[in-house]
Amino acid sequence: QVQLVESGGGLVQAGGSLRLACVASGGAFSNLNMGWFRQAPGKEREFVAAITYGGGGTSYTASVKGRFTISRDNAKNTVYLQMNSLKPEDTAVYYCARISYMSRTPIGSWGQGTQVTVSS
For 28, how many CA atoms within 13 A lie in the half-sphere containing its CB? Predict the structure, then answer.
């Protein structure tokens, strides 16, 4: 079972940037497709971005395309989410997870998440 720990969240003004990180342990990270999800208050958790196990493929939900970039460092068992041009509607708790890349559905357990708050 892979354990995941997210970090890097915080409070930022609209138009600002944050870089989230998710460190994995307890599994063969370099063999896993990984993704980021988010959950805003009163809303369901939603897909944000995904990356294939080797890093050669990425996909994004439409609302973040062109602003967010997912990447990974398999030597560090870490997946990143660079978030630029942040908007108030990006405010949410962000989670990483193993993912089924084609269906964009999570697999296994979640980490504790990291809070991102974007002020207007």
Answer: 4
